């Protein structure tokens, strides 16, 4: 017996957070609750009490022949009135019990034992709800923690809720990410209170401890943001997170660029050097302040413009990203980001993803993925229908050169010809306005 107690004590010392019961995690893991005003709470309790009273009245009235008034002789032809049933239910649920009306049949007494007594208990619980709520808070939190841990999947874990972490959360929420899908891990109680006020799930603890990250569901997370206060903690958290979640996308912030390779080696997919990025913006602001304002606009998804990502639609395949209605900045092909002016992405392929500038006034990403281009639109709007079909066929057929439009100007006479890589004639000047499939302007060239 003594050995059993010693074994339990040692197990309690060595146990981590994930092995503790849910009731022991109430002070560590906080699930946000919606705010309810005191007036609404009182109104709801009164409503529940009236509901219990009304149910008791209906039950007594349905079996009114089984009750009798002690001041009168029981008579089957003279049962209790509705007022008598209301009176009996009121004095019974309030535990006053004057005893002037009592059940005397077996069925009425059975109903009192099975139904009226539980209603009486429920009525009392509603009346003293403040005390009961205080006593059951821990149990309710433990139940919510258990449910949350069982269903949390594909969420985002944010380590650190300082300036960087708070800004990252604001950017995600502004990009239509639900606060219920974000979990904040921090050791600062004040920071966790702010996160809780924002409707976020919070975990109090050191994120370098694997049990804390497990409690936050890092092993099931879709992405993990590391916004620690110092680079050493960022490296340790990244290393621990990568061990727990091999498939999660880890984005880490670092102060000094000298520590960038450590984060990469620890398993970070993307890194941000916060000090150097801020320094670049400060330097740019000295010469072109409007550029910094535009960058702030692009980095704020809830207003103005924002940088977004979407898949290439079937209508856009084979076309150039520079001919789309969207302002495309780059193409993600096979997990690699390629600039829009690179030759290898001049013809879009199935599976490519576009980085483009999105406006809050434009259709949402869902409508774009479903085919946001208007009927008849494609990546070659400058060509006539026959030329457009020829150009698209030329892009998709290997070994065939795409057709271009030449705009020829000679002494004020303008004409259009279709050519397939035709060399320039003497006396003309070639001016490229784009890549394959775009127009080539021909103008008069002065003789040397």
From TrEMBL:
The keyword Iron does not apply. PROSITE patterns: RCK_N. One of its GO terms (cellular component) is plasma membrane. Residues 414-427 have a biased composition (Low complexity). It holds the Pfam family TrkA_N. One of its GO terms (biological process) is potassium ion transport. It comes from the Bacteria. It is a multi-pass membrane protein. InterPro entries: K_chnl_dom, NAD(P)-bd_dom_sf, RCK_N, Trk_Ktr_HKT_K-transport. Keywords: Membrane, Transmembrane, Transmembrane helix. Residues 362-381 have a biased composition (Basic and acidic residues). Residues 359-448 are annotated as: Disordered. PANTHER family: POTASSIUM CHANNEL PROTEIN 2-RELATED-RELATED, POTASSIUM CHANNEL PROTEIN YUGO-RELATED. This is Ion channel membrane protein.
């Amino acid at each position: 017996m003594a050995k059993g107690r010693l074994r339990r004590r040692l197990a309690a010392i060595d146990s981590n957070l994930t092995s503790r019961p849910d009731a022991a995690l109430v002070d560590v893991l906080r699930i946000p609750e919606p705010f309810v005003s005191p007036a609404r709470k009182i109104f709801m309790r009164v409503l529940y009490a009236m509901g219990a009273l009304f149910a008791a009245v209906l039950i007594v009235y349905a079996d009114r022949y089984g009750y009798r008034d002690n001041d009168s002789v029981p008579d089957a032809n003279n049962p209790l009135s509705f007022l008598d049933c209301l009176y009996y239910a009121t004095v019974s649920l309030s535990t006053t019990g004057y005893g002037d009306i009592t059940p005397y049949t077996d069925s009425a007494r059975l109903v009192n034992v099975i139904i009226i007594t539980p209603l009486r208990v429920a009525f009392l619980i509603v009346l003293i709800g403040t005390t009961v709520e205080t006593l059951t808070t821990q149990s309710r939190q433990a139940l919510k923690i258990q449910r949350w841990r069982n269903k949390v999947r594909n969420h985002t874990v944010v380590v650190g809720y300082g300036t960087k972490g708070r800004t990252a959360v604001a950017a995600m929420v502004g990009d239509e990410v639900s606060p219920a899908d974000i979990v904040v891990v921090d050791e600062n109680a004040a920071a966790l209170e702010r996160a809780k006020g924002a409707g976020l799930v919070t975990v109090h603890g050191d994120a370098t401890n694997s049990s804390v990250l497990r409690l936050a569901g890092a092993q099931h997370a879709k992405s993990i943001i590391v916004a620690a206060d110092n680079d050493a903690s960022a490296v340790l958290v990244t290393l621990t997170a990568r061990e727990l979640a091999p498939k999660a996308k880890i984005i880490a912030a670092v102060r000094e660029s000298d520590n960038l390779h450590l984060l990469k080696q620890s398993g970070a997919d993307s890194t941000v050097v916060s000090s150097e990025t801020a320094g670049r913006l400060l330097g740019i602001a000295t010469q072109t302040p409007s550029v910094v304002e535009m960058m702030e606009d692009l980095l704020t998804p809830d207003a103005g413009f924002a940088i977004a990502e979407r898949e290439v639609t079937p209508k856009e395949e084979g076309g150039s990203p520079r001919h789309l209605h969207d302002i495309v900045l780059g193409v993600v092909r096979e997990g690699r980001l390629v600039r829009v002016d690179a030759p290898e992405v001049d013809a879009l392929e199935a599976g490519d993803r576009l980085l483009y500038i999105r406006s809050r006034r434009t259709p949402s990403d869902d409508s774009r993925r479903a085919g946001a281009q208007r009927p008849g639109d494609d990546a070659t709007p400058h060509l006539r229908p026959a030329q457009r079909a020829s150009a698209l066929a030329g892009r998709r057929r290997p070994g065939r050169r795409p057709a271009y439009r030449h705009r020829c100007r000679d002494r004020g006479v303008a004409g259009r010809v279709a050519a397939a890589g035709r060399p320039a004639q003497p006396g003309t000047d070639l001016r490229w306005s784009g890549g394959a499939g775009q127009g080539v302007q021909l103008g008069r060239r002065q003789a040397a």
